[in-house]
Amino acid sequence: MIVLTDQPIAVADVIAAVQSDRAGAVDVFIGVVRNRSQSKNVVRLEYEAYEAMALRKLRELAAEAKMRWPVEEVAIVHRKGVLQVGEVAVVVAVSTPHRKEAFEACQYLIDTLKEVVPIWKKEVYEDGETWIAAHA
Amino acid sequence: MIAKTPDNATQPAACRVRIALFGVTKDIVGQSEISRTLPQPATVAALLDDLKAAYPRLSGLSSLAVAVNNDYADAAYCLRENDEIALIPPVSGG
To answer: Is A30 inside any structural domain?
Structure first.
């Protein structure tokens, strides 16, 4: 399951997508919109994606994780559009036979997603807005 | 007598490309897509130079990559007119 969506993410569905009888571990990262950033109150976030390339890069990341760890299944779901504080922006779920690889693969996936996948986040504050450069 | 070839026929054709814009680059340029005509060789590096000259605020970004056909392209890649090209400012997903 590799998806970009403008609808709320059903976290349980993402976890269910990586279920495997061979997997004794499922690690899940949930990225959530927080209310403070750059010493300002965040009103909302606006995500924009270069959709075709973002999906391609996400599939590449999933394939890379499967090469580097004994991964059974990977699911990545990322929101686009307008998100309010408290909403889930991204879910990464990984299933592996044992927990160590699940943690490692999941961290690799979210860290690399933030570096290479063409998705942009604009933070809207009470008194302005700015495009975030996570890897400035 | 051999017909003289017009001088410009010996010049490589210019390359007209369309570039999709996202995030802060869309705000800087003021459009979600632009066209540029580049002399050959129309490399990624030449495109970036052209765009930074036309839109100086692009030079202030901490990074600016070019994607061709949905993957990051090297500076030396020669663009073709039918390539799907996009500017990639610093990403901030997650």
So the answer is: yes
pTM, to two decimals: 0.92
The fourth-level CATH superfamily of domain B12-88 is Beta-grasp domain (3.10.20.30)
Predicted local confidence at residue B13, as pLDDT = 80
| Kind plus residue range of the DSSP H or E element containing B25 | helix B23-29
Instruction: Provide the residue count of chain A.
Output: 136
Nearest CB to A134 within list B61, B84, B91: B91
Has the ipTM of the complex gone over 0.90? yes
State whether residue B32 sits within 8 Å of chain A by CB.
Answer: no
CA pair distance B33, B30, nearest whole angstrom: 9
- pLDDT score of B10: 47
Q: Which domain holds residue A95?
A: 2-126
- DSSP tag of B73: -
Reported in sequence order, the residue ranges of A23-131 that DSSP labels E, i.e. its strands, are: 25-32, 36-37, 40-49, 73-79, 81-84, 88-96, 119-125, 128-131
- Indicate whether A59 pLDDT > 80: yes
Assign residue A74 the CATH number of its domain. 3.90.1170.40
Contact A50 B27 (CB under 8 A): no
